[in-house]
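Students often ask why we bother encoding 3D structure as a string. The short answer is that it lets us treat folding as translation between two languages. Here is a chain of 294 residues written in the first language.
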Amino acid sequence: MLETISDNVERFSWWVSISLFLVMAAYETLRPERAATIPAWRRWLGHFALYAVGLLIVVQFSPDRIGPWLVPADESRLPFSILRRIGGDVAVLVCGFLVMDLLIYSLHRIHHNMFTLWRFHSVHHSDTDVDATTTLRHHPVGFLVNAGAATVVVVSLGLSAWVFPLYGLCSLIINMFQHINGELPPWLDRTLRLVIVSPAMHRSHHSADPAHYDSNYGNILSIWDRLLGTYRVLTPAQQQAMVFGVPGYTEPRYAGFGWMLLLPFKLRRNGASRGAADETAREPLAQVEAAGSS
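And here it is in the second language, the structure alphabet:
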């Protein structure tokens, strides 16, 4: 039954994603959390173009394409094959969901800790006006690394291909929600982040201050940040003072498709990579802390 549900999800995922995006975009327009610094149409064109290129890459690394190269003739000894015999498809779905979410959390941390990968991941962080379309703002090389690594790992463990569409749709929807530039009641955000990575929780990850963006790496579930020591909650004052973007690369031109493709090759370690923060990026936080102590 779950395989049939997965087939239907894959068939209608585009319509569901587009419909929910339009709802979120309307909410952002009516009740924005922050004022935009760059015309939305300019950013959106670049973001959708990047996503289109990324999708072409993801399709090439789909489980259906590379699975036969990774799965042995006898799949019965693979972990998820054993799990399916013991617990059925429900157990495969639950455990597969958790494994994939932990894997993406881990890949996200690696992208922040290896400068070579941070070059490409910085395209996502260079957005100075975070909104639902920021979800789509990933360099094609970043797509390649994530899609390739995730597929190789989970397929090698014997995870059924029908789990991917279910996790993928949940990931896209929650990622758009995480990046939404819309006001949410604080109580609702606090409640949501007991289970998922909420907008306020993820928004701090987009801060230009490395003390903030080296935290809250979760993709869907907030449990991994809590368990692995990367969970961070900012005060309302810190949230208000926070600025987005990669220090030194916040000019409007970096919102264009061409510049987003070139940014990884232009990026320099000083002020742009983890552990090498530009002191100017710390000023808003320093001002808040000084105000709070006075």
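Translate back mentally: Residues 112 and 274 are 6 Å apart (CA to CA). Keep this in mind for the problem set.
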